[in-house]
Amino acid sequence: MSVHSRFPPFSRRSSGAGQAASVWAGVPGGCQNTFNDNMLVVVMFETLDGIINANEIASTFLHRHGDPG
Questions:
Q1: Which of 19, 1, 11, 58 minimizes the C-alpha distance to 36?
Q2: How far apart are CA 33 and CA 51, in angstroms?
Q3: Between the N and C ends of the chain, which has fewer C-beta atoms within 10 Å?
């Protein structure tokens, strides 16, 4: 999940089929830097099994900002 939550060079999110460039053209730093600097990923566990396994699930995608994965 975290691999697709930020834009390159930090991750692998796509840039929105060309629309992002026109929507964010006037933003200093552009859309990719703005999104990367302001991204929050929230995980919601919906079952008791998810809560019981929360640490194991979290360990599959925890990394520092800027690290691949």
A1: 11
A2: 33
A3: N
Distance (Å, whole) CA 25 – CA 15: 13
User: Could you tell me the pTM of the whole model?
Assistant: 0.43
Could you tell me where the DSSP H helices lie in 1-69?
A: 19-23, 30-37, 48-52, 54-58
Distances (CA, A) of 49 to 26, 44, 45, 52, 61: 46, 12, 9, 5, 18
Domain definitions of the chain by residue range: 2-58
pLDDT tens profile 5-43 = 777 666 667 666 666 667 667 777 777 777 778 777 788
